[in-house]
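Can't paste images in this forum, so I'm doing it all in text. The chain is below; anyone willing to post the predicted structure tokens underneath?
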Amino acid sequence: MRTPRRRVWSILLVLATLVATSCTDDNSNPLPPPGVAGLPTFSTKDTLVFGVGQAQSLDPALAPDAESLRVARQVLETLVQIQPGTARVMPGLAESFTADPGGTVWTFQLKRGVKFHDGTDFDAAAVCANFDRWYHFTGLLQNADVSAYWQLVFGGFAQNRSSRLPASLFKSCAATDASTAVLTLTKASSRFPAALAVPAFAISSPAALEKYHANDLKGPTGFPAYAEHPVGTGPYRLVSWDKKARRITMEAFDGYHGTKAKIKNLVFQAIEANQRKQALIDGTVQGYDLVNPADLKELGTKGFKLLPRPPYNVLYLGINQSGNPALAKPEVRQAIAYAVNRQRIVDQVFPPGAKVALNFQPDTAAGYNPDVNDYKPNVEQAKHLLAQAGYPNGLTLRLHYPTNIYRDYLPDPKKIVDLIAEDLKAAGITVQPVALPWNPAYLTAVTKGKAHDLHLFGWEGDIGDAYTFLGSLFDQRSNEFGFTDAELFGALKDADAASWLRRPDLYRALNASLMQKLPAVPLVHGPTTMVTVQDLVGIVPSPLTDEHYADALFL
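Text version of the structure:
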């Protein structure tokens, strides 16, 4: 899929092969059904069992999937972290951080007295040891599916094995004293400092990296042993990863430098998605993630606590300006925006927690602009604009949409298309729906071809910076939207290179400009939902799935 988070969270072939060689059980076996013998017994006062999917690697630097990163967030920590419930950056293992005016030299003042779970010291030398490890990945570790986040943020390596790899954004890391780490980049980047909150850049114990052969893909188990023995500074330490039982067990770390975990034992139990609801009802687990929207009403009625995440994605109606001369006229694009009733789409298609999209980024990221033209539904204005553009009798447009696909921002493509077609018809625009299988027909048609007029697509961010939306979508994406706008492309480039303190103002201006130019119409931000037993409190749903279970408590 096209979105960065979904791309790197996929269970990719190369890692699946590596994991298969390292597992002691057959991963083709079904996950344990709820209530089977062998699942842990627990007291709801000292153990939380959470239903999840199967993790792939507990070394977050090599983890492409959400479940592996869920574990990493409890066991390891990052230099900066995400403010709970938002996508905004705040200090983490670094108690403060600053950048030079050019945005290329970042100085991190580290917390003192922090210990790794193995008793070794966390300090600036440990920080640089981790960055140097990632920068010097070689061989298969440079595969895009293995070191996905490093390549997404930093590009290449000290010695690129492929000419297709770009020069690295990373230049050096220096420990100027025990509590000061200085990270130098080759150029300014909008990914900083937000990208450093991604668990792929969590700081591991250098002693553990060495002990467990962290870079050895041909190690004793066929996969780096560190992938099963992560050692960080987090509130929980890993006790065991039982692959046969598909169970990861953690316990509160007594030497934690911050507020200690309130629940002593944390268990992530892998259970098939279609069995998690029953496991919750049966009491096998006390919570699970990614609730099927069809189950929300039943679970709420049964007294379970629903925790919708603030959405961190956007569904939009793409407009191809190169395929149809009518769509190159701003009045026609504005007419489409006025015709579509986005609130109706939210109400009739999406689960609770969905929001009408006023920008191409969610409001949880800095730079959101609530003062843009919001194009409230206005059929008469849409008709007026069409007539002004020279189409008093309306238009006929092809609207492409995908089949065989479900996304948080696109739960029912056919129903969304039907609603849009009905709205556009009222304004005088006839829609010809074109349904195509997601991969490769649909992806090829709307990102490389010119046959479409309108299309449904979306983006899901994984870094707490608005550029992950605005830059990814509109930085010269001419094949999808069929437009060339030197002013817009220049503004995006300026935002990418700007100081992180200046960027929110630039993003606000970009959002206003985009809602005037309308290369697409933002429609909806779609949520995902967690569910827990009623007496479990303290888990704050995160738009970046950055939940920290150490804050959880049974009443």
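The CA atoms of residues 234 and 493 lie 37 Å apart. The mean pLDDT is 89.
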